Amino acid sequence: MHSIDLPQVYNLPAVDESDLPKASGRIGVFSVHICRDSIVVIDNSVRKYAGSRRVVMEVDTYHIRRSGIRYRVMNYTRMDNRYRGCGIAPRVYEIVAKSTGPIMSGDSQSPGGRAVWNTLVKRSKILTAALWKGKHYSVEHSEYGEAQSDEVSLYNTAARLVGV
Questions:
Q1: Which of 5, 58, 75, 102 has its CA at a distance of 20 to 30 angstroms from the CA of residue 95?
Q2: Residue 160's beta-bridge partner residues?
Q3: Cα–Cα distance between 21 and 34 in angstroms, integer?
């Protein structure tokens, strides 16, 4: 996976609740809405204006098929700076994996995206593995806080992390 740097987002545009599908899960006051090509997390404790809510996090997604398995690729993620570092993103990824099936990392990861996958491996709430050349390889949490595999290099190859 290639590393990329993304600009920080201070405020995401508010969203009208009626434009979102029913929540697939909750994290405290936040609700997770799984749309066709995105994941939207809203803060239900903050009302912006009539019927609209503050967006905490938005993940652009797309689907890809590998070895007969349909994965939802967790692609470009934007998070409102006020919520950064609160541990929301890994919990959102867990909800998505449990609600829609297998998820996959993008082919390029920002430092924040890499941290999310490292946390997913550490928490072990969903099964995580590396997918490389059509095979799954076990992944574990290292003493340095990074996801690692004894069988394949995670960050120097085209390997992607997957979670179920």
A1: 5
A2: 131
A3: 7
In terms of C-beta density within 10 A (0-12 exposed, 13-18 middle, 19 or more buried), how is residue 5 classed? exposed
Distance CA 138, CA 80 (A): 33
pLDDT at residue 106 in the model: 87
User: How far, CA to CA in Å, does 160 sit from each of 36, 82, 114?
Assistant: 22, 29, 11
Token reading at 24: 């697939």
Looking at the chain, the whole-number percentage of residues with pLDDT higher than 70 is: 93
CA–CA separation, 27 and 21 (whole Å): 17
Evaluate if pTM is beyond 0.85.
yes
**Is the separation of the CB atoms in 120 and 163 below 8 Å?**
yes
Distance CA 64, CA 131 (A): 13
CA distances from 146 to 42, 77, 119 (A): 29, 20, 8
Tens digit of each residue's pLDDT (9 = 90 or more) over 33-72: 999 999 999 999 987 677 789 999 999 999 999 989 999 9
